[in-house]
Write a structure and sequence with these properties.
Largest sheet: none
Number of strands: 0
Low-confidence stretches: 347-384
Helix content: 55-70%
Strand content: under 5%
């Protein structure tokens, strides 16, 4: 079976001449978004970075076998980490996109163009037959030629920035599609888990066996232990009901969180799909066309990394029996099982989705996140 491509895998073909250093990116993030205002570029990614660090700390903490973490943290950070939406690569790519977009927007073609126009108007008033005017003409021609060279440099930089921005946008869009598919599959896994009730039956059977052993020990105490039999029966029946409710509530909470991540990434992926298609179809685009299209994509990325609203309020589950500790133990076991199941190879689950529970991103057939370079990169009609 083929191994599915990792989400936010290595990105190939980036323009090393444009790539900023970490220090340059940090300086950029501290700079104001609008001159004279306090809000910085870094504000757009601050909350994302904070939650990314929290997920990382949770996963490290969990791997140290220290004191148990809350069920809310286990569910919340578990889903967000497993979905791969919170990724240092996405944070880096979104930041680089903002950096390059800022560079594109600050390119100034107007000054050299205005100078050339003004110089030509002035040159039209000179008489080349006059020695004094001939000297002025030569000086103006030299200055016009200098501005033309400046425009050529600006145009080359514009082309490089546009290509880099387009490649970053395509890379992020492709990975958002993979995140969406991962969330879709996780939702299907959770739905099938609840429908099959396989794990629920196993947990109930474990409790039955435990109580059976306790009952054997109790019966050795004599006839008075007969009362314990009825108590055990009632407790087993009640715990079985509570486990069923627990599984339903926890699976519902996990599913809702996956759906929130899915809807969020789908929204941005679809918007980027539309804008990237406009870029592909565009011929002889002006600088203003580029500014508008890539600014729209940039606004979408800002919304992606700052506009998420992921919340989870797990149900408070208590036992009406004297065995609440058993219920908590089984809840922890259930969550461990769920995430172990979700992290397994997912292709077999993808093939089992039925038409009614399948969620798609329409119009997005390409899932490759690699970036090509040199002669392998397509342009014009042949680009995606």
């Amino acid at each position: 079976m083929a191994i599915s491509k990792p989400i936010f895998d290595l990105r190939f073909g980036s323009n090393e001449e444009l790539s900023p250093t970490r220090e340059e990116l940090e300086v950029f993030l501290r700079s104001p978004k609008v001159e004279g205002r306090r809000e910085s570029h870094g504000n757009d990614i601050a909350a994302y970075r904070k939650l990314l660090e929290a997920i990382k700390a949770f996963e490290q903490h969990k791997g140290q076998y220290s004191e148990p973490q809350s069920f809310r943290d286990t569910m919340f950070y578990g889903v967000l980490g497993q979905s791969r939406f919170f990724s240092p690569v996405l944070a880096s790519e979104a930041t680089q996109y903002k950096y390059h977009l800022h560079a594109l927007l600050t390119l100034d073609f107007n000054k050299p163009k205005a100078f050339i126009k003004a110089a030509r108007d002035e040159m039209g008033r000179f008489n080349p037959r006059k020695k004094e005017d001939a000297v002025k003409l030569a000086r103006f021609r030299a200055m016009v030629e200098e501005r033309r060279k400046t425009l050529a440099i600006l145009e080359k930089r514009r082309e490089s920035l546009v290509r880099e921005l387009g490649d970053i946008a395509l890379y992020i869009r492709d990975n958002l599609v993979m995140i969406a598919k991962r969330c879709e599959t996780s939702i299907v896994v959770l739905v099938e888990l609840q429908i099959s009730r396989k794990k629920e039956k196993q947990l109930v059977e474990d409790i039955r066996m435990r109580f059976k052993e306790h009952l054997k020990d109790s019966l050795r105490g004599g006839p008075a232990a007969g009362q314990d039999v009825e108590t055990f029966k009632r407790d087993i029946a009640q715990l079985s009901k509570e486990i069923s409710n627990m599984l339903r509530e926890d699976v519902y909470a996990l599913t809702r969180l996956y759906e929130a991540v899915l809807d969020h990434v789908q929204k941005t992926a679809r918007e980027m799909e539309t804008l990237l298609a406009k870029i592909e179809r565009g011929r002889d685009k002006t600088f203003e066309d580029d500014r508008k299209l890539f600014t729209e994509i940039g606004n979408g990325l800002v919304s992606l990394i700052s506009g998420w609203r992921f919340e989870l309020q797990p149900a408070i589950i208590r036992s009406e029996t004297a065995h609440g500790n058993i219920l908590l133990e089984k809840r922890e076991e259930l969550l461990d099982y769920v995430f172990e199941l979700l992290n397994k190879e997912r292709r077999s689950w993808l093939d089992r989705r039925s038409a009614e529970n399948r969620r798609r991103i329409t119009g997005m057939n390409s899932t490759s996140s690699e970036r090509r370079k040199g002669k392998d990169r397509r342009s014009g009609k042949r680009r995606r």
